[in-house]
Amino acid sequence: MLLRGKPGDSITEGFSLKEIDPATVDHFIHLAVEKNRLTDVSLNETPQVILEKLELMADGKLKNGAVLLFDGNSYCSKFSTGGTRMERVMIFVDGSNFYYGLKGNRCSTRVDSLKLSHLLTGAKRKLIRTYYYNAAYNQDDDPEKYAEQLKFFTMLKRTPYKFISLDSNVMKSCLLDK
Q1: Domains in the chain: boundaries
Q2: Could you tell me the fold of the domain covering 87-175?
Q3: What does the buried/exposed string (b/e) look like for 148-172 if buried means 16 or more CB atoms within 10 Å of the residue's CB?
């Protein structure tokens, strides 16, 4: 799972070297050496050693940049060795603005988020993840709105490609996988 607000040099949970395509790494290294962009990497080194030297791994864990560049999906990897390239899409939703925008335009606030994500992505691009950012209501201030919002967040959690980011530590512990 890519983490909220984390750049490419952050640790990525849920991915391992198994998802890294050695041929894609090899292709990248050959291109970089050929163009004199890398001098401290040998063509004979393992993908793990190469990723560590490129600072795309830390303590045996992949960083976001490694997954984005070298995941095993050759059709969407930045340094693909073949196949049809697809643009990869990540959608970022400001939950509060989205909700009040719908409400202000007298639209239904009941939206099929997966269907919307695929509609925004289009058929020729690959949806990687949809991030939904929102702050949770305080349970003590408004228990009714809190309960209603909790149901919505629980539904979002079950939606593929979805990541929820909340400001409340209590909500995080209730909703996010550890």
Answers
A1: 1-85, 87-175
A2: Rossmann fold (3.40.50)
A3: ebbebbeebeebebbbbbbebeebe
- Residue given tokens 């004199």 in the structure block: 36
How many other CB atoms are there within 10 angstroms of residue 52's CB atom?
Answer: 16
Report residue 40 as tokens. 């401290």
- Sign of the torsion angle spanned by Cα atoms 35, 56, 2, 8: negative
Closest to 132 (Cα-Cα) out of 148, 114, 105, 107: 114
- Give the Cα separation of 92 and 137 in Å (integer): 20
- Tokens linked to 168: 């409340």
CA angle 149, 153, 156 (to 5 degrees): 140
> Rounded distance, CA 100 to CA 96, Å?
6
- What confidence tens digit (pLDDT) does each residue in 74-126 have? 434 444 445 555 678 888 888 888 888 888 888 887 888 888 888 888 888 88
- From the number of C-beta atoms within 10 Å of its C-beta (0-12, 13-18, 19+), residue 177 rates as exposed
Please tell me the predicted confidence (pLDDT) of residue 144: 92
Answer whether 0.90 is exceeded by the pTM. Answer: no
